Amino acid sequence: MASEQPLAAVTCTAPVNIAVIKYWGKRDEELVLPINSSLSVTLHQDQLKTTTTAVISKDFTEDRIWLNGREEDVGQPRLQACLREIRRLARKRRNAWDGDPLPSSLSCKVHVASVNNFPTAAGLASSAAGYACLAYTLARVYGVESDLSEVARRGSGSACRSLYGGFVEWQMGEQTDGKDSIARQVAPESHWPELRVLILVVSAEKKLTGSTVGMRASVETSALLRFRAESVVPTRMAEMTRCIQERDFPGFAQLTMKDSNQFHATCLDTFPPISYLNAVSWRIIHLVHRFNAHHGDTKVAYTFDAGPNAVIFTLDDTVAEFVAAVRHSFPPGSNGDAFLKGLQVRPAPLSAELQAALAMEPTTPGGVKYIIATQVGPGPQILDNPSAHLLGPDGLPKPAA
Ligand code: DP6
Asked: Which of 116, 211, 230, 278 has its C-alpha lying 20 to 30 A from 356's C-alpha?
């Protein structure tokens, strides 16, 4: 038990992001430097977020971490890299000052607790929100004010994009030390208020090939990936930025789908091949294309990361009709009432014309487990209320954490 009050306790939250120009492949594994730039949309924390508390105290004898209430190995290399990096930045800042206003915090050990407000079992990417939140919270507890891309990136590449709200690019950079491989906001969350995001949770199973291992194999064996990084992504980054700036939904949607498809093509081009999409994912792809064809306009887009869950982009005037199409093609299992979570979507009828155009027999119930309806959201936040802390004054998880 601690005999003194902690030196500092900070609690922050951070969002999940979904890439519309995908990051796949590292040129430096140690520094987590990518072979191409990427661009993502930050999702709203009302639906998906990580909350992290960091406490430092002279009484702590070792660094410790609890994830979703369970103590985990603090020696894990990525976690260690984040801790080392934040302490290096804190030391640098202290040395730059004349005085020494943080005399003891640097020598202190830290206790960290982190929870997600969404089920980890859903197979939704939680590492980006998790490491962004860790970097952001540690920075506040150790008094670091510099760019945190490097700290978050060391945990998980895509995490640096969760440091900002709205639309965010991760510039690959050119330097070998990675100092110019940083995340930057392209447009704030208020920029495109009509944009909506639906997460179609397809499978709760743990994926066969993790991102780190998968992208290493792709870098080593896929000629298509090299071509993509060198000759496709630079043009797409500029085009995607334009679509976002001009709120050009059809342009944004088509490029999002093409880039997701090319990412999965590089997975198939990897040897031995990697496959993240399953039969339900493919049915969702067909559903989106038939829905768009019926309207004669690109009204909906899909994107898939390293797993079978689909993330759908659409505008608020189309959400209700698309949800009706999903409900028809993928009838809910026993959770009819809880099929749609998050933002309210008013029930809408499915016209006979659209139903015919979808040309799909409904699957057996439960192919899509549930939908989370959300929107674009802000970046990390500090929670001022001490009752938000997940760790008590003794530095141990509060019972509810
Ligand atoms: C398909 O950021 O999870 O989601 O840097 O090895 O931790 P590591 O990989 P990670 O990869 C994300 C890959 C992706 C595309 C993306 O988010 O850009």
From this structure: 278
What DSSP element (H or E) covers 289?
A: helix 279-295
pTM: 0.95
Please name the helix (run of DSSP H) or strand (run of DSSP E) that holds residue 150, with its range, or none: helix 149-155
Rounded Cα distance, 20 and 304, in Å: 9
Q: Is 331 helix (H, G, I), strand (E, B) or coil?
A: coil
Which residue out of 37, 207, 211, 225 has the highest number of ligand 1 atoms within 8 Å of its CB and is therefore the one to mutate? 211
Q: Is 102 helix (H, G, I), strand (E, B) or coil?
A: coil
156 Cβ inside 6 Å of ligand 1: yes
158 C-alpha to center of ligand 1: Å? 5
What domains are there in the chain, each with its CATH number? 8-189+379-388 (3.30.230.10), 195-375 (3.30.70.890)
10-residue mean pLDDT series, the chain (401 residues)? 71 98 97 98 97 95 95 96 95 71 75 89 77 97 94 97 98 97 98 98 77 96 98 98 98 98 98 95 97 98 95 98 96 84 94 92 86 97 95 89 46
395 backbone φψ class: left, alpha, beta (φ>0; ψ -120 to 50) = left
Ligand 1 contact, 154 CB (< 6 A):
no
φ, ψ of residue 95 to 5 degrees: the values are: -65, -25
Contacts of 267 by beta carbon, 8 Å cutoff, 6+ apart: 24, 214, 218, 273, 274, 275, 276
C-alpha of residue 212 to centroid of ligand 1, in Å: 7
**Which pLDDT does position 346 carry in this prediction?**
93
Ligand 1 centroid, distance to 300 Cα (angstroms)? 23
Q: How many CB atoms lie within 10 A of CB 46?
A: 13
Computed on alpha carbons and rounded to an integer, the radius of gyration of the chain in Å comes to 22
